[in-house]
Backbone:
């Protein structure tokens, strides 16, 4: 889904952003490493952080639209479910287990190499998929484990290479956390180093814009 995102979002990679991402990635490695051993096992809950702020409506990715046409129940929003969930030790452990299991199970393959087309969202049932496929599988498994779907939002970002990337945002009482196929650690949204473009809305089928919000580290270096 990497190149089609630029066409759909009218976003271009910039050399300045790419170089800053390299510096940010090194800083994040040092900062996060000490906490990962405990937080990945669910033994210690992460600290409370501020959630990402939405800034208006946005159009969904065409791959998502096609996925929803084929899997309407996966995209339905139940207003009776909470938009944010209480992040208990049990929930945190479940999130980490599913994130790591799916990352280890699916083998990375681009949609073009896999299907011969640029952007297809599916459940990687043959064991191969790209970024959004990992997250859809995690979303389904976590839903089966009792995590409200409304609190799990597919999200579009620009990654450290300046390319479009899909992650899953889990909205909790301790902040918004990112499940990602690039790492096993579940991080608060603002420590990933990504630029946040848009995500699923929690009130209907329309997505919401995140306004290109970036990591505070990146902002400070601009």
Residues:
């Amino acid at each position: 889904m990497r190149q089609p995102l630029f066409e759909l979002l009218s976003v271009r990679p910039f050399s300045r952003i790419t170089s800053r991402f390299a510096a940010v990635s090194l800083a994040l490695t040092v900062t996060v490493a000490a906490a990962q051993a405990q937080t990945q096992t669910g033994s210690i809950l992460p600290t409370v952080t501020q959630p990402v702020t939405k800034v208006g409506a946005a159009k969904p990715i065409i791959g998502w639209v096609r996925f929803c046409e084929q899997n309407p129940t996966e995209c339905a929003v139940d207003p009776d479910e909470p938009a944010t969930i209480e992040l208990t030790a049990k929930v945190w452990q479940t999130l980490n287990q599913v994130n790591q299991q799916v990352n280890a199970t699916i083998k990375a393959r681009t949609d073009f190499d896999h299907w011969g087309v640029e952007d297809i969202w599916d459940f990687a049932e043959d064991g191969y998929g790209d970024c959004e496929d990992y997250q859809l599988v995690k979303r389904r498994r976590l839903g089966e484990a009792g995590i409200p779907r409304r609190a799990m939002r597919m999200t579009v970002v620009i990654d450290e290479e300046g390319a479009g990337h899909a992650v899953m945002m889990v909205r909790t009482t301790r902040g918004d956390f990112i499940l990602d196929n690039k790492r096993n650690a579940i991080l608060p949204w603002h420590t990933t180093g990504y630029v946040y473009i848009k995500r699923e809305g929690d009130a209907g089928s329309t997505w919401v814009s995140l306004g290109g919000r970036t990591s505070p580290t990146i902002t400070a270096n601009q």
